[in-house]
Amino acid sequence: MTGYYDIILGLIPLSLFGVSGVLTVAGFEMNHAIFVAGTIAIGCMGHALFVRTPTGTVRTETDSSQSPPPSSRVETNPVNSD
């Protein structure tokens, strides 16, 4: 099953090559077509990173009743610096 980020990974080259190719055929200069296609690709990446942020596992109702999440804090003994 493809996820959101798999689709984004497919859209990046598709927007770069597809949009720039279509705009070039439509009569735009190559520099402008690549700039527009790159802007679309960066927009896709920005959406994937900042709007739909990549997170870890999603906890559901059944998960919360079992055990608390593991602590990211590491318990260590104090160090004597003699």
Notes on the protein architecture:
With 82 residues, the chain is mainly α. The protein is 59% helix and 0% strand. It has helices at residues 4-25, 30-51, 61-64. Helix 1 (4-25) packs antiparallel against helix 2.
Detail the topology: elements first, then pairings.
Elements: H1 4-25, H2 30-51, H3 61-64
Helix pairs in contact: 1-2
Offer a quick outline of the entry:
By secondary structure, the chain is mainly alpha-helical. The protein contains 3 helices and no strands.
CA(first)-CA(last) distance: 58 Å
Computed structural class: mainly alpha
Helix % is: 55-70%
Which sheet architecture does the biggest sheet show?
Answer: none
How much beta, percentage-wise?
under 5%
Shape: elongated
Rounded Rg: 23 Å
Number of DSSP helices?
Answer: 3
Total number of strands: 0
Low-pLDDT residue intervals, each spanning 5 or more residues: none
Mean pLDDT: 82
How are helices and strands ordered from N to C? HHH
Provide the descriptors you would attach to this structure in a database record:
59% helix; 82 residues; mainly alpha; elongated; 0% strand; 3 helices
